[in-house]
């Protein structure tokens, strides 16, 4: 079964760690990658089944907005194999 993908972007490393923790505790997901750019912009990419991704992204978005640190959120439900491969390749790269 093809997994779904979710992404949450925030300002700040501390809130992104709190969001990752909350998403992992709330839903059966796996973090693919956390990308940090100068501790200002942090992107968390997750994968899991559709319901788990929707739940985790909703929680992550809510926390980021409550902290006024939300930039963007997105879900890709059952992505095309090419998109899934792109995200998988990005997840394999070392963090910057």
UniProtKB/TrEMBL annotation:
InterPro entries: BMC_dom, BMC_shell, CcmK-like_sf, CcmK/CsoS1_BMC. Residues 4-88 form the BMC domain. Gene3D superfamilies: 3.30.70.1710. It is found in: Bacterial microcompartment. Its main location: other. Keywords: Bacterial microcompartment. Belongs to the bacterial microcompartments protein family. This is BMC domain-containing protein. It comes from Lysinibacillus capsici.
């Amino acid at each position: 079964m093809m997994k779904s993908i979710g992404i949450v972007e925030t300002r700040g490393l501390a809130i992104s760690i709190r969001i990752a923790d909350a998403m992992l505790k709330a839903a059966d997901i796996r973090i693919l990658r956390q990308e940090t750019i100068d501790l200002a912009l942090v992107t968390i990419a997750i994968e899991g089944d559709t319901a788990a991704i929707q739940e985790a992204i909703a929680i992550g978005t809510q926390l980021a907005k409550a902290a006024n640190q939300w930039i963007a959120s997105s879900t890709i439900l059952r992505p095309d194999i090419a998109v899934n491969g792109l995200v998988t390749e990005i997840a394999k790269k070392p963090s910057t």
